[in-house]
UniProtKB/TrEMBL annotation:
Region span, Disordered: 264-285
Highest taxon above the source species: Bacteria
PROSITE patterns noted in UniProt: 2FE2S_FER_1, 2FE2S_FER_2
Official protein name in the record: 2Fe-2S ferredoxin-type domain-containing protein
């Protein structure tokens, strides 16, 4: 299908972008805009995890086409930082332990705010009826209902309380119109190619001179020492063999394979093409990493483009939201270790395997802190 231009207001700012007619609003918010607080659960309009406000009304963004929101005002869970009702709800949810895994929480908070502003002080039965479109598989709803009851107690309904004053700005490309805190980082871009490969573009900042960084990148064994789980077996000219061990909870894989390395000293660009297979689990990976080294003040910026394809059990972890968060954490660790190696400082850490759960824990901590407005 042919993508078409779309312009709408998201979290108080005008944004514009391109979307195919079949693209759901949830995918548009989570993808181009990087607003991953909107969660996708059932993708059938049943669970309510994807609930957002569209022109002030709670709607399922997994059932709403993005192009149908042309000119509309959309508010996601990230857009309530200055909203006093949402601030009260966040505090009450924390006090009443109204979440466990937290997956339903963004949609639950949006619905709870609608209850508080539209209905005001209502009884428990009404709250439960209003929450019937939001499913929580963890808490049994007791803490959620108690939190909402605390916030609505003594509150009067607010006429058109849902309306926000959108800032009248000239429509701009998404990356320019949205505030930096609400977007995926400018140094991270995920997409899919027509050949079935996923493409990840990112930037790595290293606190060392560009020449020193370029020389270090030419030493495969030294670079492997900066990446958790990586090991180099042989280096023969441009051909390299080695392995990468990763752990995704109960799934553990050790990819053994080979690659070819190409470098151009004049332009300070390089590429690594590789393929590997986990003999035990049956997962396979094919990919190419292209990079370019640029001076950046006193340090260095490395522009990286990764093309990859996963097959087998680990293919389920190739979705964009997981990949971008995971890659961001790995990039930070790699950059810290590379800087430490070049400056002689102690490395940030190189565990024997790449553990998704340890990085996921840090990701969840950051997201919960943002969700409840805590550092």
């Amino acid at each position: 299908m042919t993508a078409q231009p779309i312009e709408l207001t998201v979290n108080g700012r005008k944004v514009s972008g391109m979307a195919e007619p079949r693209t759901h609003l949830a995918d548009f918010l989570r993808g181009p805009l990087g607003l991953t607080g909107t969660h996708l659960g059932c993708e059938q309009g049943v669970c309510g995890a994807c609930t957002v406000l569209i022109d002030g009304s709670p709607q399922r963004s997994c059932l709403t086409f993005a192009v149908s929101c042309e000119g509309d005002e959309v508010r996601t869970v990230e857009g309530f930082d200055d909203d006093p009702v949402m601030a009260d709800l966040r505090e009450a949810f924390a006090a009443h332990h109204a979440l466990q895994c937290g997956y339903c929480t963004p949609g639950m908070l949006v619905t709870a705010r609608d209850i508080a502003t539209r209905l005001g002080d209502v009884d428990e039965q009404t709250i439960r009826r209003e929450l019937s479109g939001n499913i929580c598989r963890c808490t049994g709803y007791v803490g959620i209902v108690a939190a909402i009851r605390q916030v609505v107690a003594g509150r009067q309904p607010q006429a058109q309380a849902w309306r926000f004053e959108a800032r009248q700005e000239t429509a701009a490309p998404v990356a320019e119109a949205m505030p930096a805190a609400a977007l995926a980082p400018a140094s991270m871009d995920f997409s899919t190619a027509g050949d079935g490969f996923s493409v990840l573009k990112q930037q790595v900042s290293v606190a060392a001179p560009a020449g020193q960084v370029w020389d270090a990148l030419g030493d495969i064994r030294r670079i492997a020492a900066c990446l958790p789980g990586a090991a180099v077996d042989t280096v023969e000219g441009s051909r390299v063999t080695g392995s990468l061990t990763v752990s995704f909870g109960p799934i553990k894989a050790s990819f053994a394979g080979e690659g070819e390395v190409a470098r151009d000293d004049a332009s300070r660009t390089g590429a690594v093409k590789g393929r590997g297979r986990d003999a035990k689990g049956g997962s396979s990976a094919t990919g190419e990493i292209a990079y370019a080294v640029h001076p950046d003040g006193q340090g260095t910026r490395i522009d990286v483009e990764v093309r990859y394809k996963l097959t087998g059990p680990l293919a389920q972890f190739g979705r964009s939201a997981l990949v971008t968060d995971f890659a961001r954490r790995m990039t930070d660790l790699f950059a810290a270790n590379l800087t430490a190696m070049l400056t002689g400082a102690e490395q940030a850490g190189k565990p024997a395997e790449l553990s998704f759960l340890s990085i996921l824990g840090a990701m969840l901590k950051d997201r919960l802190a943002r969700l409840f407005g805590r550092n």
